[in-house]
Design goal:
mainly alpha, three-stranded mixed sheet, 14 helices, transmembrane helix
């Protein structure tokens, strides 16, 4: 009985209107697989080593998600969900406005700051998870994201580092992700998938922004034998080629 109550009661305290995460991540992001323009949080249109582009990406979420997310649900044919989500989004800001009049300091720290902090963290996480995209097949889970294995982040994020597997089988229980990864090593090699060992998504995103290619090469694993034989300069060129906006 508490299962529906907990996300309903707790999500506003994390800066998320009720129901928004489920529609944004579980429905839109996974069904559209980071593919632009249907996935409004897609990283495809951006130069993904450009900090300015990331700030535009984040601000678009902050400003436009209130309209774009219900519009996505409506276009997908789920009008009841679109109306329910719209009501939730409006209720969130009406409630926040009323609470602001009642107690500005409490509202700031309990609702407003968590919204900006959570939105920044979630969007930087999604940006980092989909920072390397193969121009030739951007809609493929194999080459629109990558895996982070052997890192402590996986112990805190329900094995989210196995992100290729997470997109290929979003309904797979988190405890089964490592097993499915080992079962598909040959597929990873055939699709020229990227892997990083010992670092997480935030580390990869920061390394890209700071141009720390030596850090990325240190942790980079390429299962495809031909790509793995490339000299370091060519591997860096490969990574850079997957940062450009998808045409």
């Amino acid at each position: 009985m508490l299962a529906p109550l907990l996300p309903t009661a707790l999500t506003p305290l994390f800066g998320l209107p009720i129901g928004s995460y489920h529609v944004h991540h579980c429905l839109m992001h996974h069904q559209e697989n980071n593919h632009y323009p249907k996935d409004v949080s897609s990283t495809e249109p951006y130069q993904r080593d450009n900090l300015g582009h990331f700030l535009v990406y984040w601000l678009r979420f902050v400003i436009a998600v209130w309209c774009e997310l219900p519009a996505y649900a409506w276009r997908s044919g789920n009008k009841r969900l679109a109306l329910r989500l719209s009501l939730s989004l409006v209720s969130y800001w009406v409630s926040t406005s009323l609470l602001w009049r009642l107690n500005k300091a409490a509202t700031l720290w309990v609702f407003i700051i968590p919204f900006f902090a959570t939105s920044f963290a979630l969007m930087f996480g999604n940006w980092s998870q989909h920072i390397f995209i193969d121009q030739d097949c951007p809609g493929s889970a194999w080459t629109s994201t990558y895996n982070c294995i052997g890192c402590s982040d996986n112990q805190k994020s329900f094995n989210d580092g196995y992100h290729i597997i997470h997109h290929l089988a979003p309904g797979l229980h988190w405890s089964e992700l490592p097993k499915r990864f080992t079962q598909t090593l040959v597929d990873h090699a055939e699709h020229k998938a990227l892997l990083f060992e010992g670092i997480g998504f935030f580390d990869v995103g920061l390394a890209v922004f700071c141009r720390h290619w030596h850090v990325l090469l240190k942790h980079l694993l390429i299962l495809d034998p031909q790509l793995d034989k490339l000299p370091p300069a060519e591997k860096i060129r490969l990574l850079k080629s997957r940062l450009s906006p998808v045409q």
